[in-house]
Specification:
This protein is mainly alpha-helical. The chain has helices spanning about 15-40, 45-50, 55-60. Helix 1 packs across helix 3. It is elongated.
């Protein structure tokens, strides 16, 4: 049976992989922080920014990986 040899490029030879990973980590961290802060706002501040209390609670309760 013939053997297939698979060659992979080292991480440094794959342009964009590290940049994409960094972008994902940054997006997730920002999403988590924003949702935590949204959950801390009172009804008055939420009204000021045009967000319903129930919508804010629902959004702040989402897991960080969910868009």
């Amino acid at each position: 049976m013939p053997q297939t040899q698979i060659e992979t490029l080292p991480l440094r030879a794959r342009p964009g992989v590290v940049a994409r990973l960094l972008q994902i980590v940054t997006t997730v961290a920002t999403r988590r922080r924003d949702r935590q802060r949204l959950g801390q706002l009172d009804a008055h501040l939420l009204r000021d920014i045009g967000v319903d209390v129930q919508d804010a609670r629902r959004e702040s309760g989402k897991p960080f990986w969910q868009a």
